[in-house]
Amino acid sequence: MAAQAVPERVDRIVIENCSIATVDADDTEYASGHVVVAGNRIESVGAGRAPEGLENVVRRIDGTGHLVTPGLINTHHHFYQWITRGLATDHNLFEWLVALYPTWARIDEQMVRAAARGSLAMMARGGVTTAMDHHYVYPRGSGDLTGAIIGAARETGVRFTLARGSMDRSEKDGGLPPDFAVETLEGALAGTEAAIDAHHDASFDAMTQIAVAPCSPFSVSTELMRQGAELARRRRVRLHTHGSETVEEEKFCHELFGMGPTDYFESTGWLGDDVWMAHCVHMNDSDIAAFARTGTGVAHCPSSNARLAAGIARVPDMLAAGVPVGLGVDGTASNESGELHTELRNALLVNRLGPHRERALNARQALRLGTYGGAQVLGRAEQIGSLEPGKLADLVLWKLDTLAHASIADPVTALVLGAAAPVTLSLVNGKPVVEGNRLITVDEDALARATRDEARRLAQIAAGA
Fold first, then answer.
1. pTM beyond 0.85
2. Is the dihedral of CA 302, 240, 257, 104 positive or negative?
3. What residues have CB less than 8 Å from 384, skipping those under 6 apart?
4. CA–CA distance from 400 to each of 32, 67, 319, 394 (Å)?
5. pLDDT tens digits, residue range 243-295?
6. Could you say which of 32, 180, 247, 326 would form a disulfide bridge with 374 (CB–CB 3.0 to 4.6 Å)?
7. For position 1, what pLDDT does the model report?
8. CA dihedral sign, ordered 71, 277, 333, 179
9. CA distances (Å), 223 to each of 277, 368, 444, in order?
């Protein structure tokens, strides 16, 4: 990509003597190299020491024993579920939703703020520099949930996409959510456009963006799908939803719409290079070809898919066809660890249980899913996802010289297949978010207490309903 101009007078951070995995188009790596950050941009990446004579170097870091990668990018999550972790642990997707919807429908602004802060903190301390949240539960009188989520992201310091979700198909209409848990068609569209008006930033270095995101075929009317797609394209924002997650969903689509999920999505305007969908587990060859033809992206969530017994997504086949694929944590009520490193490892391991076996994915492909692949599906591959001059300075310095990794010679293999690596430094937009494996933007201990208290309050309210 063409380098972006860097102002002459900027502070610089220099990292040297580290292994580097750039995840650029050529998968360029350096056994011992440097990264220079100037302001909020990457100024140079290369072998050996940083160039001599750099001005305004405010920090110089010896990266011996470390690997530098692009920051991890999470492409699917439900932050509010942080305060309902550990429930319905032996259910499939539809059973799990029916069990938890009545509790989720009682959330309020204070709960959502605490849950968002907890979800974001867990991801950020584990190397995520760009997060997204698909929030689709907006109970009446619950307060400013959109503002609470976006405020939590700003406080944490990560780059963020809010997929403003919605549901308007309740039990009375043949859907899964209880009647009191959904919005009207008009309310959902108005709330979504209001979020775009208030918060979407289309600039190169945007910290907050909004996507249009009706929840799923079994909780959203066809009209909301159609008008949601029209809204997104009129306002030039991206589109996100759940798709082809389970065999039950496929059966639901055939019974209600007379076609499978992919054909249904295409009929409502929901295939295109501005769309990404979560899960996509049950995709046949025709479905994958349709995604490849239209440039529709996928958020692969291996831990959640396993937790809910949904199945194994055909990620190797999607990649071979040219489908953009990123990784997602998914909600922490179906992935209680709540961090993305697990998904690097599980994407590799779970896909090797499929028909491609040991050739399904390798460590570098897994890292690409969690970085550049995520940038692709969020529509930000020109700005983030790889370490290249001119891109935004979102990067992670992983410590790989401790007992957990010291005997693994290849640093990328150590990162992906080894235990979760400590984060010595995480930069977002050129600013530190994690130092010495601790968040510097958030008091983790206080946050743990706050999220525990909100989880208890929600449980008490739900029990008394």
1. yes
2. positive
3. 70, 71, 73, 129, 130, 159, 375, 391, 392, 394
4. 14, 7, 29, 19
5. 999 998 899 899 999 999 999 999 999 999 999 999 999 999 999 999 999 99
6. 326
7. 44
8. positive
9. 18, 36, 43
